[in-house]
Amino acid sequence: MKSLSFLVAALAVAAPATAQAPALHVGGWVRAGVGSSAAYVSVHNGGGADRLLGASSPAAGQVSIHDSQNNGGVVRMRAAGALPLPAGASIAMKPGGLHIMLTGLKAPLRPGAKLPIVLRFAKAGLVRASLPILPPGAQGPAAAGAHHGH
């Protein structure tokens, strides 16, 4: 009986208490580039409030979150701090606004490949994603397959 109670205790410790689906759903894309590029990430928070603190990628020397603002025809980029992500809310980065700046690229980012990226959240910790690389002039995944005649 002693070994049976030990086995039950060991199984109780080894079994996870609950199995939960990931609370954060990450998508996005990155522009092809040499030297530097921009990634546009979307994050939907299906869990409790969190904050996006930063990002990293083995493909770039530096990775930071920036915001572009157009003031009277002059576009200025500034570093963005931590981005709040309330429960049930989303962050949607787009060209001309919030984006992840990738500088010091270790190799050119070529269309059709994928960029590994890690997002760092205050509560969720590290979340890994693999973003498709689109051509330099792309405005998003839907625009990548569109052909416009002249």
Describe what this molecule looks like in 3D.
By secondary structure, the protein is mainly β. It has one domain (about 20-130): Immunoglobulin-like, CATH 2.60.40.1890. The protein has helices at about 1-15, 140-145; strands at about 25-30, 35-45, 50-55, 60-70, 75-80, 85, 90, 100-105, 115-120, 125-135. Strands 1, 2, 3, 4, 5, 6, 7, 8, 9 and 10 form a 10-stranded mixed sheet that branches. It is globular and about 35 Å long. It starts with a helix and ends in a 6-residue tail after the last helix. Mean pLDDT is about 80; it is low at about 1-20 and about 145-150.
**Structural class, from helix and strand content?**
mainly beta
Low-pLDDT runs of 5+ residues are 2-21, 143-150
Rg value: 20 Å
Going by CATH, the homologous superfamily would be PCu(A)C copper chaperone
- Oligomeric form: single chain
Portion of residues in beta strands equals over 45%
Could you tell me the mean pLDDT?
Answer: 81
Report the CATH C-level class. Mainly Beta
Number of domains: 1
Could you say what the CATH topology is called?
Answer: Immunoglobulin-like
- By CATH, the architecture is named Sandwich
